[in-house]
Design goal:
473 residues; alpha/beta; Rossmann fold; OB fold (Dihydrolipoamide Acetyltransferase, E2P); 3 domains; 11 helices; 22 strands
Length: 473
C-alpha cells in the first residue's frame, strides 16, 4: 500500500534519531516524528515523503510511553530551545549514548563497545551561562489559536525565542528553565517596560523599530551578571531609562551593554557598542584560568560541563612535561590554556581573527607563556612549513566545527603519524566519518560521550587515538 502525503497513520515509536525525533516503521520505511518518546502509540500525519524515509506531524498520543513525563516548561512542545523535556533526564542520557554508539558502529564501522558510559551534567536545568532572546512584532501562534474558528491577531510585541524554522516569528515566552531563573525575570521586566513605554520591537520586513535582542550572561565561578541589549537604532534617550529600570529591579546586574546593529542581518553582534553600566565584561574561570568575557566573545555555554570535557581531553592526551601539542580549531584558547601547564609548548590554529586575538589576550592575562596562536584556514595553514616552524607534535588535539574536519586535514593527520590524537566533537556523526579514515593509521581506543546540553538532542564526544604499529591495521 502506497503512503501518501497528508495521510493520517497510526504509529508505534520505537527509538529516537536525528534532531531528537522519534522513529517508527511503516511498510518497512522509517518515519520521523517530533515530540515523541520510545513506546508512544500515536496518530500522525505524513508531511514529507523522501526516497528512504517519511516525516510526520504528531496529531495526538493514543497511548503514552511509560517513559513519558510532564515537561517542566509550558513551551516544551513548540519551542526550539528544548526537544526532550518529555523524557526523564536518565532516559535522555540513554538515548544520547545510544546515538554515539550507533554512529561509531554504522559510520565509523568500529566496535561500538569502545564507547564509554556517557558523562552526565550535574544540572539538567539552569545550566546555561548565556541566553539570547529576541524581539519581534509578530508572535508565534499556538496550535489552539491556529485551529480556532475565530481570527487571531499575531501582531504586537513578542519577546522570547525564535519559533523553529522561522526568522520572523517569536515564541512569546512565559517561562524558561535553561539559564538561572533571573534570566527570564529580566526578559519579562524588559518586555513589560517596553510595552508600558511604547518601545517598538524590530520589524524584519519594514526594517524599523528599536528592540532586537536581549542577551544575558551569568558567570559560573563569580557573581558577574551581564545584560546586553541589542537595538536597531542608537538612542540614549531610550536606552538610559531602560537600563536604570533594570538596575533598580535587579541590583545583581554588574554590567549593561548596548550593541547597536543597524544592518538588515539578524545577528546579535552590533556594528558598534556602548558600555552603559559597569566594566562591559564579566569574569569567569575554566580550571585555574580566568577569562574576561565581553558581550560578543565566544565562551563555552555550560561552564561546569566544559571543565569536565576538558579534563577528559587532558586525560586522553596523556601529557608529558616535554610534549609539544597542536590544538587545531583552538577558538579563544580555553583548551590550549587548560593543557599548557602540563607540557613544554602548545600551538593553536584558528580561522577567526577575533578568536585568535582573544586567545592571545587570555594567555597574557593568565601569565601563560608557552602558548602560540596562529591565524589561518586549517586546510591551508596546517602543512609541512607550519610543522617545520613549530616542531613536530607529540599529540594533536582537534576540536572542529559541526561539519567536522576538512578532508585535507584528515589526510594530513594520516600522513603525519603523530603518536597521540584527541578528537573533540560537537557532532559525533561527522567525527565518526573522520574516524573511519583515521582508523587506517590510528587505533581508535576510546570514545567518551559528554552531555553538555540537557533537554536537547545535542551531544558532545571525545575520541582517543594512538598511532598503530607500522604495517598493522
Amino acid at each position: 500500500m502506497s503512503i501518501k502525503k497528508g495521510q493520517d497513520v497510526e504509529l508505534q515509536i520505537e527509538s529516537t534519531a536525528y534532531k531528537g525525533k522519534g522513529v517508527a516503521k511503516l511498510n518497512g520505511q522509517a518515519v520521523f516524528v517530533s515530540n515523541t518518546a520510545p513506546g508512544d502509540l500515536i496518530e500522525a500525519r505524513i508531511i514529507k515523503k523522501k526516497k528512504r524515509l517519511l516525516e510526520a506531524k504528531l496529531l495526538h498520543i493514543i497511548e503514552p510511553s511509560p517513559l513519558r513525563i510532564q515537561p517542566k516548561c509550558v513551551h516544551a512542545n513548540v519551542c526550539g530551545g528544548c526537544t526532550w523535556q518529555h523524557l526523564p533526564y536518565s532516559q535522555q542520557l540513554v538515548q544520547k549514548e545510544q546515538h554515539v554508539k550507533s554512529h561509531i558502529q554504522r559510520i565509523a564501522q568500529l566496535d561500538p563497545q569502545i564507547t564509554l558510559p556517557i558523562t552526565p551534567c550535574d544540572s539538567d536545568f539552569y545550566y546555561r551561562n548565556k541566553m539570547e532572546y529576541s524581539f519581534s512584532t509578530r508572535r508565534w501562534l499556538t496550535d489552539e489559536e491556529i485551529e480556532s474558528d475565530e481570527y487571531v491577531d499575531d501582531s504586537g510585541f513578542a519577546a522570547g525565542l525564535h519559533a523553529p524554522g522561522r526568522f520572523d516569528k517569536i515564541l512569546n515566552l512565559k517561562e524558561c528553565h535553561l539559564q538561572d531563573p533571573i534570566s527570564f525575570k529580566i526578559l519579562d521586566h524588559v518586555r513589560k517596560y517596553c510595552l508600558e513605554h511604547q518601545i517598538e520591537a524590530f520589524d524584519t520586513f519594514s526594517k524599523s523599530g528599536y528592540m532586537r535582542h536581549l542577551m544575558i550572561r551569568n558567570a559560573h565561578h563569580t557573581d558577574d551578571l551581564m545584560v546586553n541589549i541589542v537595538t536597531f537604532t542608537d538612542d540614549m534617550n531610550v536606552m538610559e531609562p531602560l537600563s536604570e529600570s533594570i538596575l533598580k529591579e535587579f541590583p545583581e546586574v554588574t554590567t549593561i551593554v548596548n550593541n547597536v546593529n543597524d544592518l538588515p542581518n539578524p545577528t546579535a553582534i552590533g556594528r558598534f557598542e556602548h558600555i552603559i553600566y559597569g566594566p562591559g565584561t564579566i569574569t569567569d574561570m575554566i580550571g585555574q584560568h580566568t577569562f574576561k568575557i565581553d558581550a560578543n566573545a565566544f565562551f563555552q555555554t555550560n561552564t561546569a560541563q566544559a571543565e569536565k570535557l576538558y579534563s577528559i581531553a587532558r586525560e586522553f592526551a596523556e601529557l608529558k612535561p616535554g610534549d609539544k601539542i597542536f590544538d587545531l580549531y583552538c577558538g579563544v584558547g580555553t583548551l590550549s590554556l587548560f593543557m599548557a601547564d602540563a607540557v613544554k609548548k602548545v600551538t593553536g590554529i584558528e580561522l577567526v581573527d577575533v578568536a585568535i586575538e582573544n586567545a592571545k589576550f587570555n594567555a597574557i592575562e593568565n601569565g601563560v607563556k608557552n602558548c602560540d596562536f596562529v591565524l589561518g584556514d586549517m586546510k591551508d595553514t596546517f602543512n609541512d612549513p607550519f610543522i617545520e616552524q613549530h616542531g613536530f607534535p607529540d599529540c594533536i588535539i582537534t576540536d572542529p566545527p559541526r561539519a567536522g574536519m576538512h578532508p585535507d586535514v584528515v589526510q594530513k593527520l594520516c600522513q603525519m603519524k603523530v603518536p597521540r590524537l584527541v578528537y573533540v566533537s560537537c557532532n559525533p556523526s561527522t567525527m565518526a566519518r573522520d574516524l573511519k579514515i583515521l582508523n587506517e593509521n590510528y587505533s581508535v581506543d576510546q570514545v567518551q560521550p559528554v552531555d553538555m546540553f540537557p533537554q536537547t538532542y545535542h551531544i558532545e564526544a571525545l575520541s582517543r587515538l594512538t598511532l598503530r604499529d607500522s604495517g598493522t591495521h
